[in-house]
Write a structure and sequence with these properties.
Number of domains: 1
Order of helices and strands: HEEEEE
Distance between the termini: 112 Å
Structural class: alpha+beta
Radius of gyration: 28 Å
Strand order of the largest sheet: 2-1-3-4-5
Number of strands: 5
Largest sheet: 5 strands, antiparallel
Strand content: 25-35%
Shape: rod-shaped
Length: 129
């Protein structure tokens, strides 16, 4: 009786194992890339909201009589006038004799995408007298 070698079967098992591990590695790499992307988006949203809140408090404390101008930021969130990545702008809803109200928007300039928005209102200087 002839005995057959089991080498082709062992080789096939090893090839299948390598393919399974390669597939698992590809899935893991994709998951890590997505997690990094989500982390960057979250960090950007948090920083944008922090700046919006800070500017809203500044506007309220100064009791501005006019609507504020747009402020531009670079990719590192430094105020700039050229090569801006982000823009903070105020759109007024109400600007009467006593108060100013509206919404602060942080916009990603290149994509023209709103990152965050914050409703704000403040009394004008001398309006409470």
């Amino acid at each position: 009786m002839e005995s057959r070698s089991k080498a082709p079967l062992a080789l096939m098992e090893q090839v299948i194992m390598v393919l399974v591990f390669a597939l698992a590695a590809a899935i893991c790499v994709k998951a890590f890339v997505m997690a990094r992307s989500m982390s960057i988006q979250s960090r950007t949203r948090d920083r944008a909201m922090e700046i919006c809140q800070s500017m809203a408090e500044q506007y309220k404390s100064e009791q501005l009589n006019t609507t504020p101008e747009a402020v531009f930021y670079d990719g590192m969130w430094r105020v700039t006038e050229e090569n801006s990545t982000y823009k903070l702008e105020f759109k007024a809803d109400n600007n009467d004799a006593y108060e100013v109200s509206g919404t602060l928007y942080m916009v990603e300039v290149e994509k023209n995408k709103i990152i965050c928005k914050l409703k704000v209102a403040w009394q004008k200087e001398g309006a409470h007298e």
